[in-house]
Specification:
Strand content: under 5%
Distance between the termini: 19 Å
Number of helices: 10
Largest sheet: none
Helix content: over 70%
Number of strands: 0
Structural class: mainly alpha
């Protein structure tokens, strides 16, 4: 009762440091850190296993001889799609999948149109037209993804850029841009279907549920700190 106000500080201690073994072996400490990180949220392990499963499923289309004869090397785009599109929550995966599908479709149609236009220009003008189109597409997509209202679709503009460049260049060398575009597109569709199916049907992780768990965890930490003070 000396008239002075005491500062009330809530300290949230890290459970990871408390549970680490008292040893100088860095390998043991590292292993315990990984285990504690996984125990904090078991969905992290679930998410990692689901990504591995999805990549394995699309890889089987190449590793197994029968589907490889049907799809060929273009199925590599399915692996790329899974690796890029697979997100922690189902909602984020759908959002990224929508951007990828829309971007790939737009890039494919644009690549076919430009390739046909370049073919009409003859063998001399064809590479020049393709080169100019790559420069224009790269400039426009890079500028548009910085537009404030289009920031949520930034990934879609990236998809348009690299899909367009890969299709137009490979189509120029292979001599059939239409076939190249179609093959790339159905490979992307296969990867997207596998991604959505695995992430939705096998232990789905929803953003609302994850937020609820984080709030409960933070409130429990505050309560433990208040009890210990």
């Amino acid at each position: 009762m000396n008239g002075k106000e005491r500062d009330f500080v809530v300290e949230i201690s890290s459970s990871t440091k408390d549970e680490l073994p008292k040893t100088s072996n860095k390998a043991v400490v590292f292993m315990y850190t990984i285990l504690d990180f996984a125990k904090e949220d078991r969905n992290r392990v679930t998410f990692s296993l689901k990504v591995g499963l999805a990549v394995l499923l699309v890889s089987l289309l190449i590793l197994v001889q029968a589907p490889y004869k049907v799809f060929g090397t273009t199925i590599i785009w399915s692996i790329l799609t899974v690796a890029i599109m697979f997100e922690y929550t189902v909602g984020a995966t759908f959002h990224k999948g929508f951007n990828r599908a829309l971007g790939s479709l737009f890039a494919g149609v644009l690549a076919i149109a430009v390739a046909e236009l370049a073919l009409m220009g003859g063998p001399v003008a064809e590479p020049i037209i393709i080169g100019i189109s790559i420069f224009v597409i790269g400039t426009i997509t890079s500028f548009m993804k910085l537009w404030p209202t289009l920031v949520p679709y930034e990934y879609g503009f990236r998809v348009i850029l690299f899909t367009y460049c890969l299709i137009i260049v490979s189509g120029y060398r292979m001599g059939n841009p239409v076939r190249t575009s179609i093959e790339r597109f159905y490979s992307i569709v296969i990867g997207a279907i596998v991604t959505v199916a695995v992430n939705t049907l096998i232990f789905p992780i929803w953003a609302g549920e994850q937020l609820h768990k984080e709030l409960v965890k933070n409130f429990n930490s505050v309560a433990d700190s208040l009890e210990g003070s």
